[in-house]
Amino acid sequence: MLREYVDTTLEASALAHLFTMAGFEVESVEEVEGEPVLDVNIMANRGDGLSILGLAREVAAKDPAARRTPLFDRLSGLAARSSNEGSGSAKFSIDILTEHCSRYAAGLFEINAVPTPPMIQRRLLQMGMRPISLIVDLTNYVMLELGQPLHAFDFDKVRDGKIVVRQAREGEVLVTLDGVERKLNPEMMMICDSERPIALAGVMGGLETEFSGSTQRVLLESAHFNYRSVRRTRRSLGMSTEASYRFERGVDPEGVVRAIQRFSELLEEAGGGRLSGGVVDLYPSPPVREAIQLRMSRSDALLGMSVSPSSAKGYLQALGFEVEGAESPFTVAAPTWRTDIEREVDLIEEIGRVHGYEHIPEKLPEGSTTPGGVVGESREVDRLREELVRCGLVQVVNYSFESESPLDDPNLTKVGPRNPVSQDVALLRSCLWQGLAESCRRNGGMDVHLFEMGRVFGGDVSGVQERRELAILSVGSLVEKHWSDSQSVAVGFYSLKECVERTIAAVERPIRFEPAPADPRLHPTRQAAIVSAEGNVLGHCGQIHPDVADQVGLSPETFLARLTIDDLLAIPRSARKLAPVSRNPAVRRDMAVLVSKSVPFEAMRERIVEACGEVLERLWVFDVFEGSSLPEGTHSVGVALQLRKLGQNLTDEEANQVRDRAAKALESLGARLR
Predict the structure, then answer these.
(1) Does residue 120 sit in the same domain as residue 256?
(2) Within a domain: residue 581?
(3) Is 460 a known ligand-binding residue?
(4) Does 346 belong to an annotated binding site?
């Protein structure tokens, strides 16, 4: 069939190679009805390739020995625009009441009941279509030949001879040709008569206006519909047709009337009828073809090979482009069937396709090289990940889509796609905790220690947000129980806090922890806010709230942490202080401090550090005692001070003086030594 449109000496295998090198991958070559048939995979943005005429155009451009046949030139020369001759006396009218239809044409045909010519039946079988009747077969044949979908109505069933293209109204229904009743909504574009919908625009016709063996007059529709509208209707109804497949990938608006004229030719040749009047053509929104400047210097740079200006101009003209100018830069206008052409790089791609990418010369790379490796912020993210692994946690990667959960971020409104695949994955995650909880449940729910780093999404008063987050879930023992141990040690708040501190220390960012019963997902008295030096909250850590744990199926002894990576890495690094290693031994002094339970240790630490000065190398809590022997509302905190002096040994007297200064400083908090 292809050879009727382009005269080429290439055999089927050579044509398959030509199409593949031109960007149309040929999946198979089979013999059907005694002729080779190529199964060509068309890219989503190349709707022009869904027709024999479009593929013939590619062969004529890429094969230097190929020539277009008279049939190709005649079909290309059929009037693209209708003069609407006879439309004043037409027995039907057309109204377009939606912006999603840029062109609608129709012709009224008187038909006779004759069989489809054997040649057309054979061609349809070769293309994988079953012959049905003359009118159906001719509409399919023209669609395969020119790429323009057609639809035929029984004109005597179209009420008042009126065609209205509009959006569906709420509550309307349509029984389509497959016998299924479809519920319509205002997002769907419809073809209607004066009273009711009679077709889904660009998808499928209605059963009530289907023609039959007794039909004498057929109204043939040829139109250009917005591809987004067709796709939305098809997806909403869960159906797909040959027509919708083409409309979604782009149909030539200038080929609308041409398809009706070709149908009329074939109908008369088959003796099946004739056009009984002119073609009524409404074209409210003709496409505007923007001129694109093409620089050959840019083409050579992008392609990596030199193509002469005359060759480049010839390639584009062979593909139907209008090229002005004798030399570079050229002014190029894309044909209306090439909706994928928007920029100069698109033109350069066309030149490369036709010239042949196999002609790009082999050339060693030139220029300076940059050593590989992860640098900058990516390296810091890696440091966070590595430190979490050192803490004994296992990284997981969960889906970004999920459902509603008690673990969602209460400060964000969850967002999601308009047409979710399932209600279980209808929303984008606002927090990583839900995915970690699901991973924990799948792994038994005990002795599970996980972390995840990923993006979370949500809406607030400022709009939709997207940010990177780090989250931790830990429950049970972190160290496998040994046979000699009486019992294993379970993870607690302070072990989680230590893990967070170590992780943030790996990227050298100053933070502190503050009591903050602000997150309703965590236990109100067993949580803390992770705060920057400037006072900005980076995240939270703590024990899961018992009610939330019960709702999501986790142990109430589960501990969670989360922080925003972007906010953390935006903090300036802590200044590094380098000091020589002291040869002098350290001295330890312990203090048992009686202090109110309401005083956080961070406040104690700040005063001790200020009072001790440079000799304080390290301090930590080694014991907390509560009992009836202590005043109500107080506890005893055991604090260890590690002291060291550079260049000389600390005497006992000097160490005691440092401890006394620390104790004196704590008195401002109402604390005293026991």
Answers:
(1) yes
(2) no
(3) no
(4) yes
